[in-house]
Amino acid sequence: MKEESRPWRVETVPPAQMPEVLRLATEIYTREQSQLAEAEQRRTTVQAAIELGLPAEYLERAATIVAQQQAEREVAQLQRKGRPGRWPALLVVLSVYAGIAMGLWHQADRRRTFPAPSPPYPAGAALAFVPPTAPVTLIGPCTEVDLSPYVTQRLDEPMLPTPGSDLRNLLAGLPGAGVAHRILHGIPFRLNGVVVVGPGEGFSGSGAATPVSPQVEGIAVDRKVKRLHFLHGTHWRARDGMQIGAYIVHYADGTRLEIPIRYGEDVRDWWVRSDPNPRVTQARIAWRGSNEATDRIRLYLSTWENPYPQRAIQSLDMVTGLQAAGRETPIPFLVGLTAEQESIVPTPAPTKHTKRPSETP
Q1: Which of 153, 248, 255, 357 lies 20 to 30 Å (CA to CA) from residue 203?
Q2: What are the φ and ψ backbone dihedral angles of 37, each rounded to 5 degrees?
Q3: Biggest alpha carbon distance in the chain?
């Protein structure tokens, strides 16, 4: 068995080595105190933001954007100076700030190390989706979530706004009066309108800007859920794998979980003309149609498996991703949300055994 290492006692150190021991001890103490002070400052800042009602994930998104903007300023300064050898320096600047941005982003999925008024994201929560090659088979009763208090526009209104670019054909063939319902891949959806989020503003194909909220909060679920079914899409395309938004799950016990919306995995541009590729890795095309602005449009269905079905889900937030505002920036939108519960199968009552005359005890 390997012998466990022990710290040396100061009394055993030779006098000639004491100056070096003292120097190293001072260096270690200074470094650790500096790290503790920095950690305390970060913790205090984040704690204050949370107490004001600002979730930590928004601080991390903002920190990533600030790092990217700083990198752009460094690049601009190097280009203005025009000094020789600026390209190696430029690569160094970009790599440093890219590392900062990626590190901050990955922290959003880890357990928080600072105290918070509510419990953090569940540790080790797995994000599981029904693969697009497998059929969506209902395993329990479904509840269509009423999105009417949260929609940002009607299905028959042009989005972004581009004349004729709407989802009125999603209602084709449905009764004209009352609330519209449609079954897609066996999943019932209530069609109240569209919930659109983005980085502050979005742009139509002609370049006209329109304000878009970065988040829509408090979509009520209020039940235990085995699976959530999302009917959604996005304006404009992005690189595959880019996170363009998220659904923040708020459990009744105060814990939270993030369901990312990634381009090429969950959605693609709803205008087929802009991105002819239909394939997504964690969803499936749920509906195809058209409108006056373009001949082919589509919506996607994502089915998320709740890793904690025994915890009631209180609400959802829909938030934007890391994309900056600008022409052709992705703008995700939600059309329908359905909660599926655990199947309740009654246990058959045990049958009473009656002893026959021929049976012996």
Answers
A1: 248
A2: -65, -40
A3: 107
In three-state secondary structure terms, 311 is coil
Q: Parse the chain into domains and list their residue ranges.
A: 18-107, 128-340
Measured distance CA(337)–CA(302) in Å, rounded: 10
Lookup: tokens for 3? 């012998």
Percent residues over pLDDT 70 in the chain = 65
Determine the 3-state secondary structure of 21 from DSSP.
helix
Question: Which one is predicted more confidently, 309 or 132?
Answer: 309
Does the predicted TM-score (pTM) go above 0.85?
no
Query: Taking each helix axis from N to C terminus, what angle separates 86-107 and 56-81, rounded to the nearest 10 degrees?
Result: 180
Are the C-beta atoms of residues 257 and 121 closer than 8 Å to each other?
Answer: yes
Tokens matching residue 13? 């150190």
Distances in Å between the alpha carbon of 187 and those of 37, 227, 240? 52, 11, 27
Contact 236, 330 (CB under 8 A): yes
Q: With the C-alpha atoms ordered 91, 92, 98, 101, is the resulting torsion angle positive or negative?
A: negative
Q: Which residue has the tokens 């009125």?
A: 168
Q: Locate tokens 């600030």: which residue?
A: 66
Q: Sign of dihedral through CA atoms 92, 98, 101, 103?
A: negative
Residue-wise DSSP of 157-197 = SPSTT-TT-S-GGGGTTS-SSS-EEEEETTEEEEE--BEE-
Q: What is the C-alpha separation between 165 and 92, in angstroms, rounded?
A: 44
CA distance linking residue 340 with residue 320, whole number of Å: 25
Neighbours of 286 (CB within 10 A): 23
Residue of 244, 253, 261, 239 whose CA lies nearest to 129: 261
Instruction: Decide if 280 contacts 274 (C-beta within 8 A).
Output: no
- Classified as helix, coil or strand, 91 is helix
DSSP 16: G
